[in-house]
Each structure stands twice: as structure tokens, then as C-alpha cells.
Design brief:
It is a single chain. This protein has 315 residues and is α/β, with parallel strands linked by helices. It folds into two domains: 141 residues, Rossmann fold (3-Layer(aba) Sandwich), CATH 3.40.50; 144 residues, no CATH class. Helix content is 43%, strand content 21%. The protein contains eight helices and eleven strands. It has a seven-stranded antiparallel beta sheet, with helices on both faces. A four-stranded parallel beta sheet has the order 2-1-3-4, with helices on both faces. Strand 6 and strand 7 form a beta hairpin. It is globular. It starts with 8 loop residues before the first strand and ends with a helix.
Length: 315
């Protein structure tokens, strides 16, 4: 018997909601073959309990392996703060060998308290399948017999995908899809404003200014502006993207009426994620929540702004 034989979960996953779609994709690969703790899938277990303490107990005492989808703001919410404290408490006696850290930001950040020799997982390079394989190997190292995938498992996965594809097609033009986009529209401006603040904090000389502009909400920075639109009727009535942005660049050399030049358009449709919950889908078929969808658009916009400044710093 191993020292972790009494653990309830083979793996527990800690994450910020920005990465929920990648986390759910990983969960789908693991769920049929090992015991996985994913808070979003087990919230009903914590009704009537101190959720933060319960989460801490799971990450400290009840999981063999802990996977952390890490961003610099991980640990800033009540639950991830409790999870981080539990991980640190456990590491004090065990070291960090029970953890797998997965940096999710562009800089591939890891927490400063990790030992310098610690090797993190490169999600951008190896993807969710590679991460699932690493987790499986680590769980086996803990003495757990991970059940090999059978034909029945594969057929179950195929059947879930068939059902999901059917539900996704129905969702876009359904009343439920309309209500989802309507509810997202209510908080759209506040989420966009918060995202713009983060980019403004990079440099005092390059503010990202948010301004409602008719049917658009416009974010301006440098010689660029990005016009954001969210429309509940677009998919429901016309089959068009319900969430999109257009990035334009100012060119004073062009005629006055044509000085804003279109550079890029990014479009999202309402969809269902891997566990049949409403989400947003990009043209590349990756799913996003509203926060990560706006973050994706703002990143594309900000990259253009800073690339332009770098190429013409004296303008």
C-alpha cells in the first residue's frame, strides 16, 4: 500500500475561470479512467459547508496529484487562495512533487516560491493530450492502477460528442441561446472595462480608453480603435456572430471620410462547452467564457498597438 492509498481523488485541478474550457477538455479525457476533482463538476457536494475550507481539505489531504493551471492572478480569489494555502501547507512536509504546474499566460509565469529546479508543463507546446499523459504517468507512480481505455470508453466519448454537436446546433437558434447572450450583454461593458484597465496598467503613456459609441463599445489606444459588439438577436434571428470586434487603424494620409482602415475582425458564436453549458466559440473551435473571449480580443488589439509603436516610436 502506498502512502497515498487513502486519498479520495487521483487528481485535483485548480484554475482560474479564464482557463475553464481547457480544464474541461482535460477533465473529459480523464474522467472515465480515474477519480478527478473539478470544482465546477462537484459544487453540489459543498452545499451547506464552508466551501473554502472544504476545497483546502481536498487539495491538502484528499488528492494524490494536484494540477494547477497557473496565472499570476491565481490565488487572488477566495477558492484559489484557499487552494494555494493548502498546497503550500502540504508542500511544507512533502515538497512540491505532488504538483503539476501549467503556466497559461504568455510569459509562462510560475510562482516565485517554487524551487528553481522545478520543471513545469508547457501547455502551449504539448496541449491537453500531452498533459493528460503526464497526469496518468504521475498517478501510476503513486501506485494507482489507471484503467486502460476500452472500446466502451471510446464509444461513450464518441456518443457524448454526437450528443454535444446536436445540442450545439440547436442552441445557437434557441430561446436558451438568446437568453444566454442577453445575460452576457448585461455584464459585457464591465468585463471589457476591467480588461482595458489591465492593459492600461502596462504603461501610463498608452491608456486603453473605453467609450460607449452607439451600438458599439469602443476601446482606443495609440493609432488604433477596437469596436466591440454583442447582439442577442444576431445568432438567434440571423445566424450571425453574436459577439465580435473590429480593429481599425487611423491613417491621416487617407481622405478624411476614409481615415479609419479596417485591420482585423474577430467573431464569436454562442455555443455549448464540453459539459453542455453555454459558452462562446471562436472560428478555431476553441471555447471561451465571456472573460476569456474579451481577453483574447483585447490581446489581439493590444499587440497591434504595441507593434505599431515599436515600428514607429517617434511618431
Amino acid at each position: 500500500m502506498t502512502e497515498h492509498a487513502d486519498k479520495k481523488y487521483d487528481v485535483a485541478i485548480s484554475f482560474r475561470w479564464t482557463d475553464i474550457e481547457q480544464v474541461r477538455e482535460l477533465y473529459e479525457l480523464l474522467r472515465d479512467r480515474m477519480q478527478v476533482f473539478l470544482a465546477d463538476d462537484r459544487l453540489e457536494e459543498f452545499v451547506g459547508t464552508d466551501g473554502e475550507e472544504s476545497f483546502g481539505y481536498i487539495f491538502r489531504d484528499q488528492s494524490r496529484i494536484v494540477v494547477i493551471f497557473y496565472r499570476p492572478d491565481w490565488g487572488s480569489t477566495p477558492y484559489t487562495r484557499a487552494e494555494e494555502a493548502a498546497i503550500k501547507q502540504r508542500a511544507f512536509s512533502e515538497g512540491y512533487g505532488f504538483t503539476i504546474w501549467v503556466p497559461m499566460d504568455a510569459q509562462k509565469s510560475i510562482p516565485p516560491y517554487l524551487p528553481p529546479q522545478y520543471i513545469w508543463f508547457d501547455f502551449e507546446r504539448y496541449g491537453v493530450s500531452g498533459l493528460a499523459s503526464v497526469i496518468e504517468a504521475r498517478v501510476r507512480e503513486n501506485g494507482v492502477m489507471v484503467r486502460n481505455e476500452t472500446m466502451i470508453d471510446r464509444l461513450k466519448q464518441i456518443n457524448r460528442r454526437i450528443d454535444l454537436d446536436k445540442n450545439r446546433r440547436l442552441f445557437q437558434n434557441s430561446q436558451s441561446g438568446f437568453e444566454f447572450v442577453t445575460s452576457e450583454a448585461v455584464r459585457f461593458e464591465s468585463v471589457l472595462t476591467e480588461s482595458a484597465k489591465q492593459f492600461s496598467s502596462i504603461s501610463n503613456e498608452i491608456p486603453f480608453i473605453v467609450k460607449p459609441d452607439g451600438r458599439y463599445i469602443t476601446v482606443s489606444a495609440g493609432r488604433f480603435k477596437c469596436q466591440f459588439v454583442i447582439s442577442p438577436n444576431a445568432s438567434y434571428l440571423r445566424g450571425e456572430p453574436s459577439l465580435h470586434c473590429s480593429i481599425l487603424k487611423y491613417d491621416q494620409k487617407r481622405p478624411y471620410s476614409d481615415q479609419w482602415v479596417h485591420k482585423k475582425k474577430i467573431e464569436f458564436q454562442p455555443t455549448l462547452n464540453e459539459v453542455n453549458e453555454p459558452a462562446w466559440v471562436l472560428q478555431d473551435n476553441h471555447n471561451y467564457n465571456l472573460e476569456s473571449a474579451i481577453s483574447h480580443m483585447m490581446e489581439q488589439f493590444a499587440e497591434m498597438v504595441y507593434t505599431d509603436l515599436e515600428s514607429d516610436p517617434l511618431r
